[in-house]
Structure formats: structure tokens, C-alpha cells
Specification:
EC number: 2.7.14.1
Number of helices: 11
Organism: Anaerosalibacter bizertensis
Helix content: 40-55%
CATH superfamily of the largest domain: Glutamine synthetase/guanido kinase, catalytic domain
CATH class of the largest domain: Alpha Beta
Keywords: Allosteric enzyme, ATP-binding, Kinase, Nucleotide-binding, Transferase
Strand content: 15-25%
Structural class: alpha+beta
Strand order of the largest sheet: 2-3-4-5-1-8-10-9
Family: Belongs to the ATP:guanido phosphotransferase family.
GO molecular function: ATP binding; creatine kinase activity; protein arginine kinase activity
């Protein structure tokens, strides 16, 4: 079970999760790309000390990227707990993970510190409130690189200003099925909103899952960024629901056939790839959220989506599996979970 999915989130028929992430750097220390090892080690030490001093009741576990197996690193990525970029410099990078897995503090990724809040459903304001609170506590012990004109300084100029990236992970099967998705994505790109795949920039939208996030970090307050993104997401949610209702009214038998056929394949297949499974999971989740399938919960399908990814699957079975064996074991796991 993915811990951050334990709670029921708002608008969870369409919204899987909300993420709020801020980028910070330490004053007078070179950015991670240019830093020497001893500089990175000092940054790590200073951040760990700041967390220890500022932390009242939270429990964090510390992980050094260089000490993790390749499998463990990819499991953290598949659960969206760390970014793919964090593992690129294993001798310098590390992270702190809160025990409920809602808070990750990444150290020496693209910036010295990246604080991530991950919550179920549409929880942008709640995520920002928690993120801002932790950031304020850390800033009492860390000297951030800050410019009165430009705001927080970051290694990539597109993050300078607030340093805030907020994103919402949406399941949009009806928009994709009817061809509306591309038009909507093109429209939101004109107002400073970007659309990415399942694991962020440069990744595919597997299972009709998309990440919608802000592009602009300079010239707007954090609250304005959050509200603008929320307004756009709300419009996308309403359009997805409108199309679902229309499909039920005009193409119900075709829709039921698609959803139940996908459920049947998941129940009885003996070999299934990750990409095929994601497509079928998307159909089944749509069927659950539209009331066609009654005996399975939507969050169980989301958990299966993550549990059946390559690294997570191998962690579950405690085996090093090649592609063919993974596809067999994936089908076995899906049959077991859906049966139960």
C-alpha cells in the first residue's frame, strides 16, 4: 500500500494526488551541478541539522542515494516519493522521508533543497500550508539564497522567484477517449500551465494519467499560483465528468463492454506488460468511478497501478525478474489482488 493514498482525497473520481514542491539553495554555496563533493557534504550536514533543530514531532528517515540499490531507488521513484533527477549523482544526493510519506526533503538534486508535499485528491491549499510551515521552520536555521528583486535563486532560471511547483495528477480517460484532451492541454499551455506524463517532465501519460502544473514561478505569489492552478484543474475535472455523463447516456453498452472486458482480462490473464496493465487499470477505474463496477474501490486500482510497476513488482516478490518473468508475475499479482 502506498501510504499517501491511505486517506480519501477530494474529487478522487478524477484527481489522484496533489503535489507542492519548493526549491531552495544555500547562500554562497555553488549549485549542485557545480559543487565539489565536500561542498555537497556540508550542505547535507547543514540541512540535516536544520531539520533536527526545527522538527518538533515529525519522524523522518534519512536515505543516501549511493547506499540504495538500483531497485530501491526505482521503487521510491515509482511511488512518486523522489524525483528521477535525484538519483543522477549518487555520491552527493540524499533525502529525508517522513514516516507517513507525505513529506520528502530532497538534498542536492538540481537545487540544494527540494521540499515536496504529496497528498491524496485535490489538496493544493493543504499541501501549500504544510510546505510553507516546514519551509519557515527550516529558514530559521538555513541561510537561503534570496534576491530582493528576483526572489529565491535556483539553478534553473524557470524556478527562480517563489521556487514553487505545484501539480495535480489527474485520471482523464473520457477526455482521451473522445479526443478532447489535446485541445484542452493546448489551451491551458497558453496561460502558463503545463501538462506532463505519469512521472513528470519527459515521461509518458500511462493509464490516461496526466500531471497538470504551473510553469510560472516569478511575478506571482505562492497563493496566486496555487489558486490559478486549482481553477484550471476544476475546469478540467468538470469537463471530464460532463463527458462521462454523456458517454453513459449515449454509449452505455459500448462503455460497459469496454470496462468489463478490461476487468475480465485483468482477472484472468497469465502474462501482461506494464503498459497494457496501465491501460486496463484506467478502464476499470473509469468503470468504478462511473458506477459500472461496484465491488472494487478506486484507490485499490491506483495502488495496483503503482505496485505493478517494474521495480515495485520485484520488491513485492523479493525477486530479480527479467521482462518476461515480470509480465508473468504481474498477471499473477493482479489476479490475486482483484480476487481478494
Amino acid at each position: 500500500m502506498v501510504k499517501w493514498l491511505n486517506e480519501k482525497g477530494l474529487e478522487d473520481d478524477v484527481v489522484i494526488s496533489s503535489r507542492v514542491r519548493i526549491a531552495r539553495n544555500i547562500e554562497d554555496v555553488r549549485f549542485p551541478q557545480a559543487a565539489r563533493k565536500e561542498e555537497s557534504e556540508k550542505v547535507t550536514k547543514d540541512i540535516l541539522e536544520a531539520v533536527k533543530n526545527s522538527n518538533k514531532n515529525d519522524n523522518y528517515k534519512f536515505f543516501e542515494i549511493g547506499r540504495l540499490s538500483s531497485l530501491d531507488k526505482n521503487v521510491f521513484i515509482e511511488k512518486h516519493l523522489i524525483s528521477p533527477n535525484l538519483i543522477q549523482k549518487p555520491d552527493m544526493s540524499s533525502f529525508l522521508l517522513r514516516d507517513d510519506e507525505k513529506v520528502t526533503i530532497m538534498i542536492n538534486e538540481e537545487d540544494h533543497l527540494r521540499l515536496q508535499i504529496l497528498l491524496p485528491g485535490l489538496s493544493l491549499e493543504e499541501g501549500w500550508k504544510l510546505c510553507n510551515s516546514i519551509d519557515d521552520e527550516l529558514e530559521e536555521y538555513l541561510d537561503y539564497a534570496f534576491d530582493e528583486k528576483f526572489g529565491y535563486l535556483t539553478s534553473c532560471p524557470t524556478n527562480t522567484g517563489t521556487g514553487l511547483r505545484a501539480s495535480v495528477m489527474l485520471h482523464l480517460p473520457s477526455l482521451v477517449l473522445t479526443g478532447y484532451a489535446n485541445n484542452i492541454f493546448q489551451a491551458v499551455s497558453q496561460i502558463g500551465i503545463t501538462v506532463r506524463g505519469l512521472y513528470g517532465e519527459g515521461t509518458k501519460a500511462l493509464g490516461n494519467i496526466f500531471q497538470i502544473s504551473n510553469q510560472i514561478t516569478l511575478g506571482e505569489t505562492e497563493e496566486e499560483i496555487i489558486q490559478k492552478l486549482k481553477n484550471v484543474v476544476k475546469q478540467i475535472i468538470n469537463k471530464e465528468r460532463e463527458i462521462r455523463e454523456n458517454l453513459l447516456a449515449t454509449r452505455r453498452i459500448e462503455l460497459e463492454d469496454k470496462v468489463l472486458r478490461s476487468l475480465g482480462i485483468l482477472k484472468y490473464s497469465r502474462i501482461i506488460s506494464s503498459e497494457e496493465a496501465m491501460k486496463l487499470f484506467s478502464d476499470v477505474k473509469m468503470g468504478i468511478d462511473m458506477g459500472i463496477i461496484k465491488n472494487i474501490e478506486s484507490k485499490d486500482i491506483i495502488n495496483l497501478m503503482m505496485l505493478t510497476q517494474p521495480a515495485s513488482l520485484q520488491e513485492y516478490f523479493k525477486e530479480d525478474l527479467d521482462v518476461e518473468k515480470r509480465d508473468i508475475k504481474r498477471a499473477e499479482l493482479i489476479r490475486e489482488k482483484i480476487k481478494n
